[in-house]
TrEMBL record:
It comes from Candidatus Chisholmbacteria bacterium RIFCSPHIGHO2_01_FULL_49_18. The keyword Hydrolase applies. InterPro entries: MetalPrtase_cat_dom_sf_prd, YbeY. This is rRNA maturation RNase YbeY. Pfam families: YbeY. Gene3D superfamilies: Metalloproteases ('zincins'), catalytic domain. It comes from the Bacteria. GO terms for biological process: rRNA processing. The keyword Nucleotide-binding does not apply. Belongs to the endoribonuclease YbeY family. Keywords: Endonuclease, Hydrolase, Metal-binding, Nuclease, Zinc. One of its GO terms (molecular function) is metalloendopeptidase activity. Its cofactor is Zn(2+).
Amino acid sequence: MSLIVDIRADSKFPIDRERLRGALRTAWEAYGISEETHVSVAVVGSRKMAELNQRYLNKKGPTDVLSFAQQGTEREGFGFVVPPGSPLELGDIVMCYPLIIDQAVTLNVLVDERIVERALHGMKHLMGDEEN
C-alpha cells in the first residue's frame, strides 16, 4: 500500500515537494500502517495561518504548523461511513511559510529541512502522538 500526499502551495512558497513526500512516506512506513492512506499538506502565508489559528484554536497570530485529523489509524468511531476500499484519510497539515523561513534562519538550517521537520511534527499529531 502507499501514502498519497497532496501538496498545495502557491508558487510564491517554493518547497521541495519530492523531499517532503519522501519524508512523510518514510514516517508513514515507520508507523506500520498497512492500508492506502491519504494526507493533505497546505503551505500558506501568515494572514491565512493567523485566521486558522484564531478560528480553530482561539489563538491570535500565526503559528508554524496546524494539524486537522479526519480519521485515526482505526476507522471505527468517527460517526460517518467510509466506503470499502477507500484510502484512510488522515487529515490535513497546514504550514506557515513565512514563519518557517524565520525559524530556518534562527536555527541556521535550510528552509526545506525545516519544512520537512514541521510536516513530520504535524504527521505525528495526525497519528495521535501528543505534544511532549
